[in-house]
Every structure is written in structure tokens, then in C-alpha cells.
Amino acid sequence: MKKWMLLVVTACVTFALTACGTSSSSDDKKTLVMGTSADYPPFESKDGDQIVGFDVDLAEALAEKTGHEIEVKDMDFNGLVTALKTNKVDIV
């Protein structure tokens, strides 16, 4: 089940980042907001004020590859889909 979820998350993040464009010019870098519930280590957790984990590392690597910046916001798990639907975040 975890492998299936990892595959789905990877596919969704890849799609979201590539759908936003692939400009690699530093002047054109767009900041994408990633909403996450940082209470599921090792995928995402808090290290002081910083959110760390596999999902954050994956999003940052994909963003770097496509010429974007990532801003990670910690949110309640139940509000992630709503935040995505109302454009408060770009990816979850």
C-alpha cells in the first residue's frame, strides 16, 4: 500500500510541476506552494520550524528540475484537498 501511495504522490507532483511550465530562467522562477500535514515521518515531519521529509525532498528535486521554487505550508490533513480546490496551494 505504501508503494502504491508513493507512486501516486510522485506522479501527482511530477504532473503538477510540469503543468506549470518548465522555464529554467532564474527571472521566471515561479514559487509553487505545497500543502502538507507534517505529522507522518519519514514522509513529512517538523524539525524545529522547518518541514522535512521524503515528500518535501521529492517536491524540491522536481521543482529544481523544472525551474521552480517550493514553499511548504503545514496544514491540517482534512483541509488539504479544500486548499487545493480553492487555489490556496498548488500541490499537496
CA(first)-CA(last) distance? 19 Å
| Approximate helicity band | 40-55%
Number of strands: 4
Q: Average pLDDT, to the nearest integer?
A: 82
Main β sheet profile? 2 strands, parallel
The helix/strand series, from N terminus to C terminus, equals HEEEHEH
Sequence of strands across the biggest β-sheet: 1-4
- Judging from the principal axes of the Cα atoms, what is the shape? globular
Strand content: 15-25%
Nearest-angstrom radius of gyration?
A: 13 Å
Can you count the helices?
A: 3
* Broad structural category: alpha+beta
Low-confidence stretches: none
Task: Give me some keywords for this one.
92 residues, 3 helices
Set out the fold topology.
Layout: H1 2-19, E1 31-36, E2 45-47, E3 50-52, H2 54-66, E4 69-74, H3 80-85
Parallel strand pairs: 1-4
Antiparallel strand pairs: 2-3
